[in-house]
């Protein structure tokens, strides 16, 4: 019949339709058997939850082919999921991250036929609420960020890092919403770049790099027609501008770059080199920060980079730390 994946019962919201069939797992002669519990077009009532409690069932199962439908359900009910005290931080963070992945995949796949900016803004709004109200959100969200570099995972990682770092810097909720939206959409201009260039394992030719350099302006032109806030366009256009004026597309520097641009440049580089790409393995966070400090410091606002090191702290968000994994602040 197909492969199954498990979900926790506490992500199911009463008086809603899940959109995909739910199954219970049992064993017959040691072999697993999946029994239909609730159809996707059937409303999940409180009686059904009580039934699960009586049977001491913590996890249900859906067909793996229905996972995308389940993420749509989570997206629709994200406020209730992140406010559910029965869910662990890990489960909430998993829902937040994978909903964003699903949204970003949809946007990059169907961008030419229309970007639903409202989906992005709603996800950011709910995620901002989560990180401002749950002291464990920092660790939970960093633990679910992806180690593999794809345009969609990179975009989600940047938005998650941006919101967490923005909270650390005491950005206002309005600024967090604008910044998080821009970070999730920062690479949307890449829809106009051939995949063979984006995924090229070797060094880009001069012409290929010139093509890549067009994506910030392409992204802004694309989003301006979508009623997106002007502030949210700043990370889109400025995430490759360097503090010393050597970046692109406009080669601006110093305080000509908005704080959103300065932050997005730091986070964009950090995520890119700590994830596995087609042409390079992932660096450990300590090694990445060391490279950024010793070889790329002219690209960043030094004070914000120092603050980024403090924000990450001595802990390694993607792997266990080793002794000596501390990056000295820039003198």
TrEMBL record:
Matches recorded under InterPro entries: HD/PDEase_dom, HD_GYP_dom
Signal peptide stretch: none
HD-GYP domain boundaries: 129-324
Matching PROSITE patterns: HD_GYP
Pfam families referenced in this protein's UniProt entry, alphabetically: HD_5
Superkingdom, natural source: Bacteria
Protein name listed in UniProt: HD-GYP domain-containing protein
Organism field: Candidatus Scalindua rubra
């Amino acid at each position: 019949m197909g492969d199954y994946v498990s979900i926790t019962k506490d992500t199911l919201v009463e008086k809603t339709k899940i959109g995909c069939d739910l199954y219970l797992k049992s064993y017959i002669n040691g072999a697993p058997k999946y029994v239909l519990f609730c159809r996707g077009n059937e409303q999940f009532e409180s009686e059904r939850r009580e039934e699960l409690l009586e049977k001491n069932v913590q996890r249900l199962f859906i067909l793996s082919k229905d996972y995308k439908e389940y993420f749509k359900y989570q997206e629709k009910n994200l406020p209730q999921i992140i406010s559910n005290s029965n869910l662990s931080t890990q489960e909430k963070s998993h829902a937040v991250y994978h909903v964003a992945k699903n949204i970003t995949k949809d946007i990059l796949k169907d961008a030419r036929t229309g970007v639903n900016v409202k989906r992005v803004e709603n996800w950011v709004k709910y995620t901002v609420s989560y990180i401002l109200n749950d002291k464990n959100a920092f660790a939970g969200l960093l633990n679910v960020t992806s180690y593999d570099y794809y345009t969609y995972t990179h975009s989600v990682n940047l938005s998650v890092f941006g919101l967490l770092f923005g909270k650390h810097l005491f950005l206002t909720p309005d600024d967090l919403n604008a910044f998080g939206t821009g970070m999730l959409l920062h690479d949307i201009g890449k829809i106009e770049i051939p995949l063979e260039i984006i995924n090229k394992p070797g060094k880009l030719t001069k012409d290929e790099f010139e093509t890549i350099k067009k994506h910030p302006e392409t992204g802004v032109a694309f989003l301006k027609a979508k009623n997106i806030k002007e502030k949210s366009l700043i990370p889109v256009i400025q995430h490759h501008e360097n503090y010393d004026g050597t970046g692109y597309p406009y080669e601006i520097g110093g305080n000509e770059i908005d704080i959103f641009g300065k932050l997005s440049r730091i986070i964009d580089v950090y995520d890119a080199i700590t994830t596995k790409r087609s042409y390079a393995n992932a660096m450990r966070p300590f090694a990445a920060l060391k490279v950024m400090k010793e070889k790329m410091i002219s690209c960043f606002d030094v004070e914000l980079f120092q603050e980024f090191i403090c924000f990450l702290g001595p802990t390694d968000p993607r792997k266990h730390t080793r002794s000596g994994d501390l990056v000295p602040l820039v003198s």
